[in-house]
Amino acid sequence: MRDVSLLDIFKHHIAEKYLNRSGLAHAIAVAHHAFKLAKEQNQDVDIAAKAGLLHDIGHFTWYRNGKWDYDLYKKNDIHPIKGAERAHKLLIRLGENPIRAKTIALAILFHTDSFLPSNDIIRTHLQQIVKWADEKDEEEGGLHHYRKIEIERARESIIRLDGLIEKELEMKNESEIS
Ligand SMILES: [Fe+2]
To answer: What distance in angstroms lies between residue 174's CA and the mean position of ligand 1's atoms?
Structure first.
């Protein structure tokens, strides 16, 4: 049993606000990709999926005169830093194990180079998986942030992914015992 499920995160009002801001459909797709990659590459599927779900919750709304201003965003964005901090606070409040909360926060911090002066970070395998998962779902011009999903479908997809994670963790546990 995990301390915190994806559904616990999804139901929290802070997650609701920021997941919607940067695109709930994208967040869920990245969580699924991260799970799949972590499963294939023998990494922690729960941490990968949580980091995938929360990776973009640090976005700020860079609007000027009612329109999204990409230049302003490019120049001033620090969404991985804000996202890492926001996700960490949320996870700790929900009762996540602190070591896991830190690992998830760091994976969010390093999911992109876009906010850094150089792109020479050496990532852990898990951090790289979250970056790949995000890139798998990216669309030209940032359109992935605007894809819509019905709230009920989103919920079902989160519950389905929780089930897949539980099953994977159970299987791992069994193989470790035998
Ligand atoms: Fe993203």
So the answer is: 34
Is the Cβ–Cβ distance between 14 and 106 less than 8 Å? Answer: no
The pTM is what?
A: 0.94
Domain ranges of the chain: 6-177
Cα(122) to centroid(ligand 1), Å: 19
Architecture of domain 6-177: Orthogonal Bundle (1.10)
pLDDT tens-digit series, residues 107-155: 999 999 988 888 889 999 999 999 999 999 988 878 888 889 999 999 9
Residues in the 5 Å CB sphere of ion ligand 1: 56, 134
In this prediction, residue 111 carries a pLDDT of: 97
DSSP type of residue 111: S
| CA gap 40, 22 in Å, rounded | 27
